[in-house]
Design brief:
It is built from eight helices and four strands; from the N terminus they run βαααααααββαβ. By secondary structure, the protein is of the alpha+beta class.
């Protein structure tokens, strides 16, 4: 059996990690590490009453990251509560329609492909990357989760939340490994 070790709120982690040290950044780190980031945004928005985490997360991602910039309630609430993060998002969006997506994809690759994956392979654990996580044998999931937390502390300066999701897929998917070119 396989497990996915997944970074919670990864896009937000990448954005907050790029911010200069400040009280706002520390507050955002606390919300991300506790898993309360999306619920907190909902509570300050006063326009949504999402009872479903997936629906809330999707609304935040669309309104704050990937929709055309316009007056969205969640984006407005985010910018009012976290003005430094709002300025950073506006800056990235001003660089073109895909600049924010490209930035987030680069950060994802730098962490999962350049940082975490070589460490997992160094322990001889078979692994595949999934955009915001790693697919590993179930027997290694806790070890990889701990490795990811430590790698994130080294990489970002803080420990985001990593969750383990069990998959019915067979470990045979991980039986052949392709080494990265150097």
């Amino acid at each position: 059996m396989l497990s996915e070790v997944d970074m919670s709120s990864c896009y937000w982690v990448f954005l907050v990690a790029a911010m200069p040290d400040s009280a706002e950044r520390n507050r955002l780190i606390q919300l991300l590490a506790s898993g309360e980031f999306y619920w907190y945004l909902e509570s300050i928005c006063n326009k949504y009453d999402q009872r479903n985490y997936s629906t809330l997360k999707k609304s935040v991602q669309i309104q704050c990251l990937f929709d055309k910039p316009r007056r969205h309630p969640l984006f407005g609430a985010l910018c009012n509560e976290f003005p430094e993060l709002g300025r950073f998002l506006r800056y990235l969006r001003s660089r073109g329609p895909s600049a924010l997506s490209q930035y987030l994809n680069q950060m994802e690759g730098r962490f999962f492909i350049d940082t975490a994956l070589p460490q997992v392979w160094g322990l001889d654990i078979p692994c595949l990357t999934l955009h915001d996580g790693l697919l590993v044998p179930e027997s290694a999931a806790k070890q990889v989760q701990e490795l990811c937390v430590n790698a994130a502390i080294d990489h970002f300066g803080f420990a985001p939340s990593f969750k383990i999701t069990y998959s019915p897929l067979s470990t045979e998917l991980l039986s052949s490994r392709v080494e990265p070119e150097t």
